[in-house]
Amino acid sequence: MVDWTLRALKGALIGTGFILPGVSGGALAAVFGLYEKIISFLAHITKDFIKNVLFFIPVGIGALLGMFFLARPLSFLLENYEAQVLWGFIGCIIGTLPSLWKEAGKKGRNKKHCIILALTAVLSFFLLYIAENFFETQLPLNFITWILAGVLIALGVLIPGMSPSNFLVYLGMYKPMVDAFKTMNFIVLLPIMLGFIFCLFSFSAFVNKLLQKAYTGLFHFVVGIVLASTVMIVPINYNYMSAGALVCIGTLIVGICLGLWMSKLEEKYKT
């Protein structure tokens, strides 16, 4: 029972990484020694199926509870203090970047990988900037786009260090998604779950092979995308001459500290 409860608690903390920008569900799974088990299970689904399902049931229950309990305060804060919250998110991402950079070079790094990172960051920023200024980046909220949200969340599990929530913020889907978790709106949650499950089972084997064959290149690619998408969610229409700007600085600092702390925790406990 203690082991079951512990796995549920780990799942709850991992679940917060699904919806908290700057924090990766995959990185948290690595923190608690579950990442390799998850990828191995998904990549070889028929091997020890019953045993693995029983093992991950409390993890799944905990993850759902973690998302639901975090959604309510996040929804309130985004509704009333959007700029301050976004700067906190940006701080979290900044705080995790040193760890993500270290993870990217874990198996070696050369000039080619740095070029991949730089080109990815510049090209991604250019494309996102073009999309924001010349196209409607607020996606229509429908069944298909919520499936896309589920796919992005699943990628945050499959690729440690990738936080899908900042992409959802950029696409204008993050606040409605958090509201859906808060109110348990299954019109939104069902397609998210479908996209999540589809991506996990469809790409886990591919990601597993890609990590084995092109680990360093993939992670430098991810770092480049993270850098570009983070710059794009900086709130530029806020009145920084107001007293609220001090709160923005405060949440940025708190976010950086939180990101650094989570990174140190990952390095300490990752197996």
Write a brief structural summary.
This protein is mainly α and 271 residues long.
Structure report:
This protein has 271 residues and is mostly helical. The chain has one domain (2-269). It is built from eleven helices and no strands. It has helices at residues 2-19, 25-31, 35-43, 49-80, 82-104, 111-134, 143-158, 165-170, 174-183, 186-232, 244-269. α4 crosses α9 and α5 runs parallel beside α11.
List keywords for this structure.
271 residues, mainly alpha, 80% helix
Largest sheet: none
Summed up, the domain count is 1
Count of alpha and pi helical runs: 11
Which outline best applies? globular
Mean pLDDT: 82
CA radius of gyration: 18 Å
Binned, the helix content reads: over 70%
Number of strands: 0
Instruction: Name the beta content range.
Output: under 5%
List the helices and strands and how they pair.
Elements: H1 2-19, H2 25-31, H3 35-43, H4 49-80, H5 82-104, H6 111-134, H7 143-158, H8 165-170, H9 174-183, H10 186-232, H11 244-269
Helix pairs in contact: 1-2, 1-4, 2-7, 2-11, 3-10, 4-5, 4-9, 5-10, 5-11, 6-10, 7-10
